[in-house]
Design brief:
Helices cover about 20% and strands about 20% of the residues. The chain is of the alpha/beta class. The protein has a domain of about 120 residues: Transcription Regulator spoIIAA (2-Layer Sandwich). Strands 3, 4, 5 and 6 form a four-stranded parallel beta sheet that branches. A two-stranded antiparallel sheet has the order 1-2. A two-stranded parallel ribbon has the order 7-8. About 10% of the residues have low confidence. The structure holds flavin mononucleotide.
Length: about 170
């Protein structure tokens, strides 16, 4: 009998070769500019070659105020999209679905300007309450696109399409 661990698995639109998943793990490999670099690409290519059925890339923070670590990936602005798309391609080129974990540290961001759902003091800082839609200064808010889809621009969507679930 085939061991279920090593048998294929349907996950929504994806078919995983087995039930082993490389979990997201913050590595502090990105440079302080929060970009995908060669160390990040090499590590995840190696994880994709490991035989795992799916690779989930460590937390990529959706805006600078949500950063919990100085060397986390950022996915907050268009300039980060080409690197993130290259990362997806490096994994998928090895026949493995690639998933990106999106992250916001909220009140755990350890910054004076942190935001959170409630004004609960943490690490000596009381976060600003997120009672309104927010956007970073450098990234405009999402706006409705054709067909009712939300879209910002083609750079974001070409990056999104590079990942397994788009
Ligand atoms: C160094 C380190 C970094 C981690 N980074 C993340 C992360 O970015 N996102 C996440 O959801 N979990 C993260 N985790 C949690 C792991 O994905 C995993 O859930 C946890 O280690 C439990 O699995 P284990 O019992 O096999 O170690 C991290 C764990 C470690 C040890």
């Amino acid at each position: 009998m085939t061991d279920p661990l090593f048998s294929p698995f349907r996950l929504g639109p994806l078919t995983l070769a087995n039930r082993i998943v490389c979990l997201p793990m913050y590595l502090a490999y990105p440079d302080p500019d929060h970009e995908v670099n060669s160390l990040v690409l090499d590590y995840y290519a190696e994880m994709a070659d490991s035989g795992a059925g799916m690779v989930v890339v460590e937390n990529a923070t959706i805006e600078p105020r949500g950063l919990t670590n100085p060397r986390s990936l950022l996915a907050s602005e268009d300039r980060f999209m080409p690197g993130l798309a290259r990362l997806a391609q490096a994994i998928k080129a090895r026949g493995v679905p690639a998933v990106l974990q999106l992250h916001h540290g909220g009140r755990h961001a350890k910054r004076a300007d942190c935001i959170a759902p409630s004004a609960v003091e943490t690490w000596g800082v009381t976060p600003k309450v997120m009672d309104q839609p927010t956007s970073t200064a450098s990234s405009p808010p999402l706006r409705p696109g054709r067909g009712g889809r939300k879209r910002r621009d083609s750079t974001l969507w070409s990056c999104t399409a590079a990942w397994a679930i788009s």
